[in-house]
Predict the structure.
Amino acid sequence: MKKTKTKISFRNLVVLDLVLLLGVFLAFKPFNVAFGDKVFADQLNGTDVTSDTSADAAKFPYTKTFIISAYYSPLPCQQHYHTGSYASEIALNGNGTNGADGTQVFPGMIAAPKTYPFGTKMDIPGIGIVGVHDRGGAIVSTDTGKFAYDRLDIWMGFGDKGLDRAMSWGKKTVDVEVYGVNTSIAEQVSLGDYSASESTPNDCSQVVTAAVTPENKAVAKPVSQAAVVKKTVTKQVIPEKTVAFLIADLKPGDKGDDVKALQENLKKLNLFRTDISGFYGDTTKHAVFKFQQIQGLVMDENSEFAGVFGPKTRKGLNKLVAASSYNETRIASATEVYKRTMVASAEVDKPKRTLISVELRYGMRGPDVAALQKFLKDKGFLDGNLVTQYYGPVTQNAVTEFQKANKLISSPSDTGAGYVGPATLELINTLS
């Protein structure tokens, strides 16, 4: 009897264990299915828990307001520059072919503040789903106190077409859907007239493009070590100018005329700010490095060949040499026009009038600034029809070009460049 009871108790115990195990299995199986459904739903909504398990992942997606501007990569053979010259254009926009994270530039590529990690996905109305791949000095968050909303910048292309597209976008305040760093969301950008060929810049190192006039279409001229740049203007003969290109690779410690030529060209770009010595020292090395940064050739001073004037750096600087030569012929043309204007004005017996009554400088506003802008526009130094009454960088650059054309200064680095002082004020009033 006792044996029978023992067997029954053991059998009951085994059955009870099996029932408990089955209950546990059934209890947890629905949880696993529910978790799988959540993963799928999160992927559709842009919150992929498999790619970010941190507490921050739960906040995506969200809608946020941004101030969005546009930028592009200038080329030395453009027909038009927003700031007036290639050198000032690259100072404003940069001239890189890659974003700060190394990604090759493409339409719709976003520069964002550091608070948005590289790879952050966003849905911008009119642009599409984009990713953060770049930074910018003016692309800051509201923490700086400069703007009401965080800033974004959209890359719009190379050359004239990129500039036109960037100008058309302007600066907008836009509500954007932010998805965070999410590898399950693909970037899908549409800029309408953008073509895939625009992802590669035109090679302007082999041509110098003349200005387009009613009787003169853009003409490409081959460039050699001593090329001739000529600009044709209707009813006017422009003198030819010989361009001396840099032909030697240079490094710290080198001396001679080639180093002097390098220093002179870097000084024109306001990168070399001391006396020409012909010695490749630390100052020259740093100036070369800054130029390489502008061109997107190096990331920082620890990069290989940073501060060394090698083939790629020389090619980039020679592009500017060609562009500068072309601009000088344009200015020479303008100078001849204004010489004739001054002679004609002297021959006309009429009382002089005062167009501008006070000296003007960067940052000022008012009717005198508006009068200055209209004068510069009428004389061909200020593009467009807009008169803003604000003395900003565009007006400052136009004043500098006017001063150079009339030999009031020799370069933008001269004292008084871009400032309407006594001599400039007198000349403007004389010509008006």
User: Anything to note?
Assistant: Residues 1-7, 24-55, 205-241 have pLDDT under 50 and may be disordered.
